[in-house]
């Protein structure tokens, strides 16, 4: 019975690792998103530099990605980098000095603003840096790309 329980826990751990989300950011000034993994596919739209996307499928030279609005499309793998950015999805997100709701506010971010992901903080918070240099913590529910 113990062996079955240990095996079940190992399986759950393996499934959890397999389901780990892979977020990347667009590295080129603008990238074309296609309906299929080919430059001959239908061009759907452009995505700007630093925009985070979730990699859903990998095919040689191509990634099928999901954006912050849930749209899925194909992008050439070379257009994405390892750098992590986050996109504000709340109407207004406050950057706080510490990962606490009563910490001093050091900046405000409007919806769709991009910030650099620095590190995960205490549960519910993430450390970010805005392009103007402001660094602090935002609620993880206010950004997309984690």
Automatic annotation (TrEMBL):
<dbReference type="Pfam" id="PF06347">
    <property type="entry name" value="SH3_4"/>
</dbReference>
<feature type="domain" description="SH3b">
    <location>
        <begin position="83"/>
        <end position="146"/>
    </location>
</feature>
<dbReference type="InterPro" id="IPR003646">
    <property type="entry name" value="SH3-like_bac-type"/>
</dbReference>
<dbReference type="InterPro" id="IPR010466">
    <property type="entry name" value="DUF1058"/>
</dbReference>
<protein>
    <submittedName>
        <fullName>SH3 domain-containing protein</fullName>
    </submittedName>
</protein>
């Amino acid at each position: 019975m113990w062996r079955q329980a240990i095996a079940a826990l190992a399986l759950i751990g393996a499934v959890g690792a397999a389901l780990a989300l892979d977020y990347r950011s667009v590295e080129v000034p603008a990238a074309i998103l296609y309906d299929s993994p080919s430059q001959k596919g239908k061009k759907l739209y452009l995505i700007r530099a630093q925009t985070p996307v979730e990699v859903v499928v990998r095919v040689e030279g191509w990634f099928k990605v999901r954006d912050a609005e849930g749209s899925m499309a194909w992008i050439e793998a070379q257009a994405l980098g390892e750098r992590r950015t986050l996109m504000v999805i709340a109407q207004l997100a406050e950057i706080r000095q510490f990962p606490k709701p009563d910490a001093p506010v050091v900046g405000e971010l409007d919806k769709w603003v991009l910030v650099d992901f620095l590190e995960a903080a205490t549960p519910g918070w993430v450390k970010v840096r805005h392009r103007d240099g402001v660094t602090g913590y935002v609620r993880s529910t206010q950004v997309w790309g984690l």
